[in-house]
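Re: that chain you flagged

S.,

Sorry for the slow reply, it's been a week of failed gels. I finally had a moment to sit down with the sequence you sent. For the record, here it is as I used it:
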Amino acid sequence: MKRLLIISTVLILSCATSEKQVITPTVTEPAFDLSTLEGFFKTAEADVFRAKQVVEKNKIIFNLTHLKLMNTGGRRYYLLERENITEMINAVTEGIYLDYILINKSGDIIYTRISESIFGCNINNGFEDTPLRKCYLSRAAVHFEDVSTMTTGSSILGMYVSVPVLSDGIFQGTLILQIDIERINRLFNDRTDIISREGLIRVTMDRTRILSQYSGFAGIDIPSLDKNSNWSDMSSGSRIDYSVFKYRDISWIIARR
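Prediction finished late last night. Pasting the structure tokens below so you have them in one place:
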């Protein structure tokens, strides 16, 4: 009887212990998925190629340059090419681009959709170190310029994608699309900053911080980040995760608080 009692007691204790055990699964934070951001860049690249095909097919740069020289239609001579320009605009994804810019081989800005202040200017005079001139000088199949203002005196921020326009393999000019960075912001939350390799904030919800120095840049272990594509910092007491993003001419560090 004693033996039976002991066995029964052991079994009861064992069951009680099992009920109190709580198994906590290990939570592993998933790697930061940048495929949506990459997809955005691929969309911009596909868009500028489609628009280029329309420009080349309809000889828009040649025609606008001819109209400019003839001064047909006055300052708004490009309205005579309205149908072809509308086809160019309709060739790209709606709602992504702030402006569409055409520059002929001589550097004359012969079309902008909204930037009237630069229309008719020459890219070789007064546009040094601007994204527009860098796009114009590039002869790469497709070229991206990082977030900045279009000109020195401009307050409108954008990113830029450009392609050279050809006719029978000969350079005729450049097509530039100015990308609305708000569309990139929508891919992230308000705890995310996008930083250049020089430490400048390029994209963030707080637009007053754009093009300012990222305060934690000096503390980023760049070699570790480049080696692993990801790196985390907890020195400030709260965790910040950093990820590398590269697409053609763009090289960013994504910081997530």
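What I noticed first: The chain is about 30% helix and 25% strand.

Talk soon,
D.
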